[in-house]
């Protein structure tokens, strides 16, 4: 494995190991199982796993499952699959919900120390009394309940004597703190909901701010890495670890979230796209989810290289989606076999080629990687070309087929267009050409030059295939400020998917799901694992060949 690029968190780890503050780095990746992982999570996964890997440490996969209403085992399973697919192995596999009893006991400890109280205010009242950045908050009238009363009420909360929202447990810190997070934050809420892991055992659940530091401390995590929006919670994180008298003292470090152009990067929004049927599930190839990228044809290597390149910093930024494209092209350049596919077929008859004859032509599998060898492709009197590669009345600089013009058929011969056959509506349905046997590819013919080279597939052996062409899911507008009254759903690209029916070379008929190819002149494609059948291969466009992106 290549070492990860340097970043400020890595420097902290190096210092902590050197000074003896920690003797082993322990990190964790802590997703909430309320959706599928996206490429933003990949950034966090790479950071946590690579950091521990590099310094002989450990990384846990921990499900931060403290909100029963939104969580599901489907998500748990998908997250495990995605982390493994990215190429990482976790040391411990944990669920925050396995620590509920210990968390409860720590909350009881806080109550006994006079550091937590049961509060009967409604969420609205609490919000009103919380104050603002410039005004201190007001203390709850329930703040000075006795330890005995608090213990009794908290026990009864656990026993299910109260309804959702009737009571909460709050930390007793400082309603005058300039940091709003420290103004007696809620530690536990009541929720009579069935939990994916603990079922109906609990009807009170810890809040993230209370649960997360305890989870880290219980597992002995040394460097707890989260995104920048949690920076203001760091004092509370430290308060919880300290006041709960945790033996291990983890520290929180924040880094900038990954944002990418022309997409959305939050499970809430991605779930909306799924639920509102803008896409065909979490693994739709247009989604920035790991499962979507996998189905689209991205490789773990390309995603990891991308994460390495974007680095880890403390300032938020927007990364151009073209950068991800760059890394998949780089990864597939030498690996993916080249092939020819016709997306929008137009029949060509080569009138001077013997009827009934089929010859086999040699074609390189990958000119950039000659070790991949040679494939054989049939050629005969009838072939398909792209509709785009013929124009009856060409504009200037159009060097492909038009009446009277000669082009090279890749791996085959020069052909010249003589006739255009149309249907009764005037649509071109067939082109008649003649070929020149002397111009056969590989024979070293230098007699004359042509300006255009086009691809083709022999008609009688051509295998039908479906091509799915993708464009960004979200239009540019989302990059800027959303206009008033609009949501990101107003910026969903209505043309993000185009499905066309075409043909592939016969040697492609057994292509397996997830096989990746470079279709000559079209780009890189992945055999779709979801809808491909024995009868019909479906190819997802991963990325086109053209790129203006420079690193
Ligand atoms: P979302 O808003 O997408 O639900 P989240 O932060 O709530 O994101 P979690 O399941 O809590 O999702 O995330 C697990 C880990 O992944 C957290 O440590 C979080 O900081 C990190 N993470 C989530 N989104 C990104 C992102 N866009 N870039 C970098 N790290 C991220
Ligand atoms: Mg979260
Ligand atoms: Mg979230």
TrEMBL record:
User: What CDD domains does this protein map onto?
Assistant: GlnRS_core
Could you say which residues bind ATP here? 32-34, 38-44, 227, 257-258, 265-267
Q: What chemistry does it catalyse, as a reaction equation?
A: tRNA(Gln) + L-glutamine + ATP = L-glutaminyl-tRNA(Gln) + AMP + diphosphate
Write out the transmembrane intervals: none
Q: Which GO terms describe its cellular component?
A: cytosol
Matching PROSITE patterns: AA_TRNA_LIGASE_I (PS00178)
Task: Supply one GO BP term.
Answer: glutaminyl-tRNA aminoacylation
Q: Which domain of life is it from?
A: Bacteria
UniProt similarity note: Belongs to the class-I aminoacyl-tRNA synthetase family.
NCBIfam families in the cross-refs: glnS (TIGR00440), PRK14703.1 (NF011291)
Know the name of this protein? Glutamine--tRNA ligase
């Amino acid at each position: 494995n290549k070492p990860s690029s340097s970043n400020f968190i890595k420097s902290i780890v190096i210092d902590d190991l050197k000074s003896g503050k920690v003797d082993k780095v322990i990190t964790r990746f802590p997703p909430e199982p309320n959706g599928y992982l996206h490429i933003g999570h990949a950034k966090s996964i790479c950071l946590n796993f690579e950091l521990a890997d590099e310094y002989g440490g450990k990384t846990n996969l921990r499900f931060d499952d403290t909100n029963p209403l939104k969580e599901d085992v489907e998500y748990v399973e998908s997250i495990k699959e995605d982390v493994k697919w990215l190429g990482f192995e976790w040391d411990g596999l944990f669920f925050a919900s396995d620590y509920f009893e210990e968390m409860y006991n720590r909350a009881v400890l806080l109550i006994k120390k006079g550091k937590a109280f049961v509060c009967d205010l409604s969420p609205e009242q609490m919000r009103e009394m919380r104050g603002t950045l410039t005004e201190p908050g007001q203390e709850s009238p329930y703040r000075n309940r006795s330890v005995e009363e608090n213990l009794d009420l908290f026990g009864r909360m656990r026993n299910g004597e109260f309804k959702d929202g009737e009571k909460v447990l709050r930390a007793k810190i400082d309603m005058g703190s300039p940091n709003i997070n420290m103004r007696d934050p809620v530690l536990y809420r009541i929720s009579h909901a069935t939990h994916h892991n603990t079922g109906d055992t609990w009807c009170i659940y810890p809040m993230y701010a209370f649960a997360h530091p305890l989870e880290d401390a219980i597992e002995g995590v040394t460097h707890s890495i989260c995104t920048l929006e949690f920076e203001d919670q760091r004092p509370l994180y430290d308060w919880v670890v300290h006041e709960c008298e945790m033996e291990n003292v983890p520290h929180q470090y924040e880094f900038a979230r990954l944002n990418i152009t022309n997409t959305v990067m939050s499970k809430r929004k991605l779930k909306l796209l799924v639920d509102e049927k803008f896409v065909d599930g979490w693994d739709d190839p247009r989604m920035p989810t790991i499962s979507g990228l996998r189905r689209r044809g991205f490789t773990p290597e390309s995603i990891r290289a991308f994460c390495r390149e974007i680095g880890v910093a403390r300032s938020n930024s927007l990364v151009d989606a073209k950068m991800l494209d760059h890394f998949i092209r780089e990864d597939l350049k030498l690996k993916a076999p080249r092939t020819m596919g016709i997306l929008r077929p137009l029949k060509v008859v080569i009138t001077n080629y013997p009827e009934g004859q089929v010859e086999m032509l040699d074609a390189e599998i990958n000119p950039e990687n000659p070790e991949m060898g040679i494939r054989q492709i049939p050629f005969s009197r009838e072939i398909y070309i792209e509709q785009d590669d013929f124009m009856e009345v060409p504009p200037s600089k159009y060097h492909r087929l038009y009446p009277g013009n000669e082009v090279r058929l890749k791996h085959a011969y020069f052909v010249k267009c003589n006739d255009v056959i149309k249907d009764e509506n005037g649509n071109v349905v067939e082109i008649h050409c003649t070929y020149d046997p002397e111009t056969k590819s590989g024979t070293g013919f230098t007699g004359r030059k042509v300006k255009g080279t086009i691809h083709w597939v022999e008609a009688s052996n051509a295998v039908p295939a479906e091509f799915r062409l993708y464009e960004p899911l979200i239009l540019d507008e989302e990059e800027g400020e959303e206009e008033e009254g609009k949501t990101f759903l107003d910026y969903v690209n209505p043309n993000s998917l185009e499905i066309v029916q075409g043909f592939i070379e016969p040697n492609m008929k057994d292509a397996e799901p997830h096989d990746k190819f470079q279709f000559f002149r079209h780009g890189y494609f992945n055999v779709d694992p979801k809808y491909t059948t024995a009868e019909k291969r479906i190819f997802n466009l991963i990325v086109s060949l053209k790129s203006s992106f420079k690193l």
